[in-house]
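note to self: the first set is below, dont mix up w the second
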Amino acid sequence: MIEANSFEKLKDLNKEQTTKLFLDLALKESKDINSNEYTQELIKFTNLQSLKLNLSCCELNFEQLKDFTNALSQLNKLQYLKIKFIENVLVESNFQDLADSISKMTDLDTLNLNLDEVNVGNNSFAILGQGIGNCINLKNLKIVLRKSQIESDGIQKFAEAIEKCKQLQRIDLDLFENKTKNEGVNQLFQSMSKLSNLNILKLDLVKNELNSAAGQLIASHLPKFTVLKELHLQLRENTFSCQGTSDLFDGIKDLKNLQVLTIGLTNNDIAKQGAIAIANCISSLNQLYNFTLYFNQNKLLEEDMKVIRSGLSKVLNLTNLTFYFNGNNINQQFADKYILSISKIRRLVYQDLHFQ
């Protein structure tokens, strides 16, 4: 783990020999930060390959943020970049500066941007995507954009831009409580399906105004994800319903190399049809060893749970199982027997089942 550095310590470091740096300003008040002074020191690290920059809660103004993004543009040997901007106010020109800086990082392997609850907006998100799209060697991308007022057209433009990152192996997008809608999620999966090296995909689309048709839209693109090994989808508090859930799992069963699957569909009015789709899907995933399902607050009955149990018994390599079925029509006596029956699946080495 890289040790966090204060400004005083920054000045004492050997600029030419340092390749990894963690600059943490989260505990300093904005009035105490001379951004120009920091950035003048930062650009002296001419061989820097890894940078973690925590600007959370600093309440930096427009010019201070501009100083930091301008400094980043001069660190052209970076391979790893992680920035936290939580609780800062970024305007469109800040995103343009950040995108311009990122676009010059042609050696970048890993990019991690945390913009939690920053009001990004559609145009700014599209601009950011254009900068990332120039990182032709990028393999790992993580972006947190919770409650950022992003709508479907912003998602679409961002998705089209990252199609250029042909080396991407891992994508982790946290878009909790935005307005992706069906149009946005369709373009997102269409663009990602063109990334032939993608093997890990994590998406948080909780409260994104998706309806039952979104399941079929996602499923229509999944056959192209031929090397995908891990899929994590958080979709709770949309309106998928049984039909959307059934369509989604019908698509997932085509992911023949899938080893890890996490699906969150809490509070989506799912009943019998959804249970049948789950059972059919997992019984066809021969490489699956880790399965996590969040189905809290739906409309499953005890007979539906038996269907899922039947599907589980056919998964050849399943060793890890986690279920959340709180808030369905299942009594405790049945739950106890069900947990016992699951424990008899000999391949399982770990199980964690929740019914209450």
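second set (the one i keep forgetting abt)
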Amino acid sequence: MGRAECSCRGAERLASPCLVRRFLPLLVLIIALCYGAHIGQCQVVTPQCRIQKCTTDFVSLTSHLTSAVDGFHTEFCKALRTYSACTQRTAKSCRGNLVFHSAVLGISDLMSQRNCSRDGPTSSTHTEVHPEPCNYHSRTQHTNTYSHLHTHSHAHSHSRPAYLFCGLFGDPHLRTFKDSFQTCKVEGAWPLIDNDYLSVQVTNVPVVPGSSATATNKITIIFKPYEGCTDQRVYQAVTDNLPAAFDDGTVSSGDPIHTFAGADGATGKVRALWISERTPGRHVELHAGYIGVTVIVRQLGHYLTLAVRIPEELAQAYDATQDLQLCLNGCPSRERIDQAGYLPLPRSPPALGLQLQQLRRPSYSSQTQESPYGAMQIFGVEGAKQRCRETLEVQDIYFHSCVFDLLTTGDANFTVAAYSAQKDMESLHPHRDRWRIYPRGSATSALHSDPHSIRRFALLLLCVLSMALM
């Protein structure tokens, strides 16, 4: 009798409480997988809700305003009233949209804070935009806005240009534009980037005799001339010489073109190309606003690290003679130390014992502070992992690179290099969902590195459930 109540037919069977109870864990798992993998089929889409357009218009109307500009209060209130009117027009279709309700509350709070009246003049959302020709973001935003207004095509307009990231650190470890992570030898001078706008070349030297691992001791960056914005500028950094100026002694190039607002409300202008020294002799950033490029150069220990963000369209501007670019195509196969993403850990640091013996000799005693091997220690696998765990919380590829570097060189400075490279990546990489890369073969890799497999697994579960309910 206890099982009779589960005997259901037709449509009644689909609503059977026993089946619901039986498959509830499976349903919960599917929902969780859909949420975690961002599966489009599992999302409720409400294309009629135009709250994003309202928000974009508000940002466009206020992005140029600062508290130091005359009439700031009046213009900001006009923009708020325009924002409010836009939300009212789309209120019906956005009734169940959390973003919409958050925007409505935010508008109310801002009006109260700024003492803006509900009634009054509004801003025009079709004001003519005058681009700054030496500001890449302004230039491309104007082009896309013009395309959208005149073609009425969403397919040909994007609010923000697409950016790519490339990084190099350690022995050396390369993260390409395609988020491929490689460990390479590449001894000598190699081009990372070489296109019509920018050239970046690195020079790598052996770290420890007896090992194929190398590290970067020289970086050369050439910003090519751009008519009306800047002449050619060359920046060169070598170990123990990380200048805060270009080779000609200048720290910027081009006319002041871009207005910015500081934290204190003061306004100012930056040039088309400029250098910012964050830590003297250790951390320099180069900003090329006219092409939307940011470059971070650091010295950690005795070697250099590099991180670059560049618009995709500019990174693709090269000819057949410029195809050897490590950031674009990765390292040649003969220069790879890793095996298709798998980084084998050395059983013991090659020639490290020999180096330590040399350091103990009397002839080395007066050179200990200058020797690149002065920071060497002997690390076992567990000791290296423990040292890297002290700095790197997530055991992704940066953690495994840290362990590899400690085992290979015994130089504890590479721990800080891996940490800084990870932080520079997080500050420049445009896609947060691609930040984490896990080494091939690790347990975490199967879960994080291939979201498509998660989606296929979730869809398979859906199919199994459908068949069970039939």
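remember for set 2: The first strand starts at residue 163 and ends at 169.
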